[in-house]
Structures are given as structure tokens and as C-alpha cells.
Design goal:
By secondary structure, this protein is an alpha+beta fold. It has one domain. It is built from three helices and four strands; from the N terminus they run βββαααβ. Strands 3-2-1-4 form a four-stranded antiparallel beta sheet. Helix 1 crosses helix 2. The protein is globular and about 35 Å long.
Length: about 90
């Protein structure tokens, strides 16, 4: 079981996964800076955490990345987010 974590938000030139030009990038622990669409493709579905197809939407992934980048761990905790909210299992 491999875990991928959202570590922040970046505005890179290209996705390190597919090479597509990016406006918003998600900084990860193991795949560098990738697009939210690629992030969603990489993770395993978890129907207990997310309804529908079991995965977060790309816009939700971008929001998570921005929250990690802009808020302190203490503030995230006050908002009800733990580090587990930003960890996903790779498919």
C-alpha cells in the first residue's frame, strides 16, 4: 500500500506526471508537482470517504492543496482537518 500526500500548492509550467501545461499544481510527497486531474487518476477510490466514484473532484484536490499551503497545521486542526485528510492511497 503506497500513500501519496498533498504537501502544498504551486504554479509550475508543466505537470511532472503527464507533461501538460498547468495553471494550478498540487505538490506531492512522491510525484513532484502534478495537476489535480492527474492526482485524481493516480489515487484509489475510497467510497467511505467520498460519494459517487469514491474519489475527490479535481477542484477539491486544488482546494486541499491551497489549504495546506496557506494555513498552519494548528489552523487546519482548528478547522477540523487532520493530516489524514491530505493522504490518499495510490491505485
Amino acid at each position: 500500500m503506497s500513500i501519496i500526500c498533498i504537501n502544498g500548492y504551486d504554479q509550475p509550467d508543466n505537470c511532472e506526471h503527464c507533461g501538460k501545461r498547468l495553471i494550478h499544481g498540487v505538490r506531492t510527497n512522491s510525484h513532484g508537482v502534478i495537476g489535480a486531474d492527474c492526482f485524481v487518476k493516480l489515487i484509489k477510490a475510497d467510497k467511505k470517504r467520498f460519494s459517487g466514484n469514491g474519489k475527490p473532484s479535481p477542484s477539491m484536490v486544488r482546494d486541499y492543496a491551497k489549504m495546506v499551503e496557506r494555513r498552519s497545521p494548528q489552523r487546519l486542526s482548528e478547522m477540523g482537518y487532520s493530516p489524514r485528510h491530505f493522504q490518499f492511497e495510490v491505485a
